[in-house]
Design a protein that fits this description.
- With 193 residues, the protein is mainly alpha-helical.
- The protein has 7 helices and no strands.
- Helix content is 76%, strand content 0%.
- The longest helix has 52 residues, at 96-147.
- The chain is elongated.
Amino acid sequence: MLGALAFAPIATAAGAAATLGAAAATVDPKWTALLADYRAKRAHWLDNCLIEDEASNVFREAEKRLPPKPVDPGSGLPDDLSNLTIADIRAAGQNPAHQAAVATYKRDLAIWQAQHDALYESIYGPPREFIRAAIQAQDDALVALVEHRAQSAAILAEKLSIMIAAFEDFDAPSEMLEQVLLDTQHLAKQVRA
C-alpha cells in the first residue's frame, strides 16, 4: 500500500516544486534538526544492535561454570514393558525410592533453574534494556520526523525514502501514511495559493 501511496504524493509534490521554484528549495531548520536527530539515533541503534549477540557468547562461557543440570530419574519402569501388568506399572510409580529420587530431582532442578535464570538475566538484562531504549529512541525520532509537516517536495521525497527504508518488508503504520497525505494536501494548497 505504501508503494502505491508513495507515487501520488511525489508526483503532486514534484508539480508543487516546479510551481514554487526557489521557494520550495528553502531550508527548513526544524526538518534539518529532526533529520539529524533521527539519523543519529538510528546510527546509535545500528552500531549497538549486535550487543545481544556478544552477550550470548559471554553467557555460553558463564553457563559452563554452573553445576551440571540435574538428570531426570525417569519413570522408574524397565525399558521392556511387555511383561508388566497394570498393577506392576502402578507399583513402580509408588516405589518409595523412585518417589524420593523424583522429589530430589524436582528440588535440584528448581535450584539449578533459578541459578541459570539469574545468570541469564545478569548477562542479557542490561544489553536487552539498552537495545530496547535505543530502538525506542529511534522510533520516537522517526515519528517526530514523519509528523513534521513537509515544507517542500524535496522534504516530502526525503521523508518517503526514510519511511520506505525504515519499514522495508513491513507495512508502514496508517498514522504515518496519513501524515504523508497531509503533507501532500499542504503542498497542494501552496501551489493553489
